[in-house]
Amino acid sequence: MKNITWNIEKLDELISQLSSMKPCGKTGIQSLDSMLGGGLYPEIYVLAAEPGAGKTTLALQIADRIAEFGSRKALFVSLEMSASQMLAKSLSRISALSPSLPPLTVRQLMNARQLSNDGKQAMMEALIAYREQTAPNIATVDERVTVADLRKLYESLPSAEFPPLLVIDYLQLLPPSDGDPSATDYQTHTANMRGLCKLAKTYKTPVLVISSKNRANRNGRQLASLSGSSEIEYSASCVLFLDVDGSTEDERAEEAAKSKRLVTLSVRKNRFGSCGEVPLVFLANESRFIERCTY
């Protein structure tokens, strides 16, 4: 930086930016959208959870919702599951909305040849809905990519379009951009979070980063529970924890084994809004979350 531009010199520009700020799309979870000021903004959001809580399923549900109803498309980087498995999750969720046909599990969809006639009809209806409403506006990347790769991808997008929402599943599997084999996990996570933060700021798009929780605080809902670099909590505008309900480890394990799980989505950091908790039901066999107050 060579010169200082005083705020009075760019006040009109700043006011214009403020007046144009609006959500890029809603998550579809009404209580969460209220806490977030209407939905997702061009900022960094971190979603942390222990294994089995459904963090990938929730992130995909949000991405599909924005792809279908939001102002922009969605790019889902899946470093753990294949694109076909992610599609099965989406179809499972859609099939559960049919008033007359049976809902399909991910496993049933991955073994579609064994479906009953009703099951095949349910799959066909779900596929038609997905093809028409969601598929044109979402892309699933299931190959090994770096933040540098993603930055090049966003640079190549048409300037006339809003850059897509970016979902990273998940941070701890994201490789270093420089390919340095000697880099520690801490260094890699720090560099990747800074890179994702810069991407969100440069292209003015929401970035939803899924993170694991550290083993020592796996059941905690505090920022110290985030696994890896402290940069995760510092870079994020909003940090959410998804936890299976239960006061003891045994109770949580028992709840996690159910097909209908009581879980709580906790907003523990919200730079521009309120914090709080949203009680949810995770319908694991249907790959979807609903608010407990509507269940």
Topology (elements, then pairings):
Elements: H1 11-19, H2 30-35, E1 44-49, H3 55-69, E2 74-78, H4 83-95, H5 106-110, H6 117-133, E3 138-141, H7 147-155, E4 165-169, H8 185-203, E5 207-211, H9 231-235, E6 238-244, H10 249-256, E7 260-270, E8 276-283, E9 288-291
Parallel strand pairs: 1-5, 1-6, 2-3, 2-4, 4-5
Antiparallel strand pairs: 6-7, 7-8, 8-9
Domain SF4 helicase: 18-295
InterPro entries: AAA+_ATPase, DNA_helicase_DnaB-like_C, P-loop_NTPase
Protein name: SF4 helicase domain-containing protein
Description:
This protein has 295 residues and is α/β, with parallel strands linked by helices. It has a single domain (35-291), classed as 3-Layer(aba) Sandwich (Rossmann fold), CATH 3.40.50. It has 10 helices and 9 strands. It has a 9-stranded mixed β-sheet with strand order 3-2-4-5-1-6-7-8-9, sandwiched between helices. α8 (185-203) links the parallel β4 and β5. α3 (55-69) packs across α4 and α7 (147-155) packs parallel to α8. The N and C termini lie far apart (54 Å). The model has no long low-confidence stretch (mean pLDDT 90).
* Unreliable residue stretches: none
Q: What name is given to the CATH topology?
A: Rossmann fold
- The structural domain count equals 1
Rg over CA atoms: 20 Å
Specify the CATH architecture. 3-Layer(aba) Sandwich
Mean pLDDT: 90
CATH homologous superfamily annotation: P-loop containing nucleotide triphosphate hydrolases
Order of neighbouring strands in the sheet with most strands: 3-2-4-5-1-6-7-8-9
Sketch the major β-sheet. 9 strands, mixed
The rough form would be described as globular
- How much helical structure, as a percent, in the residues? 25-40%
Which structural class matches the secondary elements?
Answer: alpha/beta
